[in-house]
Amino acid sequence: MAKRRLYREIVGRLGVFGIPEDHVTVVVRDTPCESWGFRGGQAACDVDLGFDIDV
């Protein structure tokens, strides 16, 4: 749902500059939490951030 809103928002904002909707392509490159390392070398999926990330 969030990604669909993002696509529409990008297309809408580019329309202000006269860019036709059918000329816009949006590509989201997702990287799973297991592939993020931070906080001293921990995998992001193993760290409690205090909130959920589910996009």
Outline the secondary-structure elements.
Layout: H1 2-15, E1 37-38, E2 42-43
* Major sheet: 2 strands, antiparallel
Strand order in space, largest sheet: 1-2
Q: Roughly what fraction of the amino acids lie in strands?
A: 5-15%
- Treating each run of at least 4 consecutive H or I residues as one helix, how many helices? 1
The coarse silhouette is elongated
Give the helices and strands as they follow along the chain.
HEE
Radius of gyration from CA coordinates: 16 Å
List the uncertain runs: none
Gap from first CA to last CA: 8 Å
- Number of E-type strands: 2
**Helix-strand makeup class:** alpha+beta
The helicity comes to 25-40%
Mean pLDDT: 89
Describe the structure.
The protein is of the alpha+beta class and 55 residues long. It has one helix at residues 2-15, and strands spanning 37-38, 42-43. The model has no long low-confidence stretch (mean pLDDT 89).
